[in-house]
Amino acid sequence: MDDMAGPSLSERYLGCLVGLACGDALGGPFEFRSRDAIAREHPKGPREFTGGGWLSLAPGEITDDTQMTMALARSCGPGGLDMDRLVAEFLDWYRSDPKDIGGTTRSALARLAGGESWEEAGEAVQREAGPRGAAGNGTVMRCAPAGMRFRRDPAGLVRASIDSARITHADPRCTWGAVAVNQAIAHLLDGGETAGAPAAAIEGVPEKRVRDAVTSAAGTSRDDLRAGGYVLDTIRSALWCLANHGGFEETVVAAVSLGDDADTTGAVTGALAGAAYGIGAIPARWRDAVQHRDELERLAVSLLTWSEA
Q1: Which one, out of 41, 118, 142, 294, has a CA that is 20 to 30 A from the CA of 300?
Q2: What is the 3-state secondary structure (H, E, C) of the chain?
Q3: pLDDT per residue of the chain (309 residues) written in tens, 0 to 9
Q4: How far is CA 177 from the centre of its chain?
Q5: Residue 163 main-chain phi, psi, to 5 deg
Q6: Is 263 in contact with 65 (CB distance < 8 Å)?
Q7: Distance (Å, rounded) from C-alpha 90 to C-alpha 105?
Q8: In terms of CATH architecture, what is 9-308?
Q9: What are the structural domain ranges in the chain?
Q10: 0.85 exceeded by the pTM?
């Protein structure tokens, strides 16, 4: 944005959801690719919606990251987060035979489909995982709407972030990881500096492993970053990209260039960068081509409206 005042609140809201989808769509074709292989093919980083990859995506097509985000956004209204609506949205999506669905998410949604309550399904999957837990990044990829809806209600943000996470991922690294990402998003939506995002993220977070991932992110070397499916790796990588790059495009390209779970790292980074820089900073060639842009924008406007009510 050239405006010295920076993007407006509405531009930040639009940027957050559309930015998440753009990061997802940019990264989807590179999921499970190594960063070295990506660098050989794209020395300046992936900068176009190429399509392809193991999911045979069309250029601009989103994946489960954005699909589940939209389900959560549709479940947030003037009364807050409707968990019954969220269960129904997730089950409708689960039964639609999506191209991709994470293992922990699949296990939890299968339990929901079998009649278990949302309070029990994620907990049961967690118990089955044993002492190491099931700490995948399926919560942080989709959590942004809770941060947007409850931007002005810190306690509500924590509660909605945890509940919308534990429906599939009850591990405290996942639930409190979602809180941390959403607190960073709320900070950025309010016009906070990117340098202040880590401190905002860990405010009141009791889970030490999440706090450590957040506070160590900016100073981690790129070679030491991991960008696989572990939730704390995703949080650390997304915050590293935000701290060490300027502008939306450079930040998201850096995230996707890390490879491995490139769509999720791209999605989380895209949500953060979109909240920081606004929709006007997202390249038009991405904004115009990303799947479901119109609905994403409608949902962003609704979330802003409900957050101000």
Answers
A1: 118
A2: CCCCCCCCHHHHHHHHHHHHHHHHHHHHHHCCCCHHHHHHHCCCCCCCCCCECCCCECCCCCCHHHHHHHHHHHCEECCEECHHHHHHHHHHHHCCCCCCCCHHHHHHHHHHHCCCCHHHHHHHHHHHHCCCCCCECCCCCCCHHHHHHCCCCHHHHHHHHHHHHHCCCCCHHHHHHHHHHHHHHHHHHCCCCHHHHHHHHCCCCCCHHHHHHHHHCCCCCHHHCCCCCEHHHHHHHHHHHHHHCCCHHHHHHHHHCCCCCHHHHHHHHHHHHHHHHCHHHCCHHHHCCCCCHHHHHHHHHHHHHHHHC
A3: 334 579 999 999 999 999 999 999 999 999 999 999 999 999 999 999 999 999 999 999 999 999 999 999 999 999 999 999 999 999 999 999 999 999 999 999 999 999 999 999 999 999 998 777 789 999 999 999 999 999 999 999 999 999 999 999 999 999 999 999 999 999 999 999 999 999 999 999 999 999 999 999 999 999 999 999 999 999 999 999 999 999 999 999 999 999 999 999 999 999 999 999 999 999 999 999 999 999 999 999 999 999 998
A4: 11
A5: -65, -45
A6: yes
A7: 10
A8: Orthogonal Bundle (1.10)
A9: 9-308
A10: yes
Tokens of 124: 């049961």
Cα dihedral 258, 205, 270, 29 in deg (nearest 10):
40
Cα–Cα distance for residue pair 29/261, rounded to 1 Å: 10
| Six-digit token string for 66 | 């954005």
